[in-house]
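Progress against Task 2.4 (sequence-to-structure conversion) is shown through the following example record, which the project officer requested during the mid-term review.
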Amino acid sequence: MRTPNMSDEELDELVRRSAEAYPEEIPLGGWLRMEDKLNKAATDQLVRRKVVRLFMLEVAIVALLLLLWQGYRIATTGTEVAQQPARTTLPVTKKAATVATSAASEQTATTLKPSVSPHTWCRPLRRHLPAQK
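Structure tokens generated for the chain above:
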């Protein structure tokens, strides 16, 4: 659709006349709902900010406590190592290491004997197993 050539005054007069015909009533309930939505959004944003701040504070506290704990561990470990006497190590051949390991395992095998026989602790299990023929 073509627009007729009009002067600015004629165009302004046309817009004024059409605006006068438009109803001026604006439903107040719509503005109240919009205001409620904006208030709810503002309070949600404030709550979210507070939650994020508290979370960041908790993370910072945990990180600080971990750093303090690590520092304490390093400080106490350093003093324990300094108090231990220096040990001298002798070179060990492969054969000597194998003999020492096998002797140690034999010694532990002979000293570790079960205090309860397997028959004692297996009795309750035998009830639940099918009978053997």
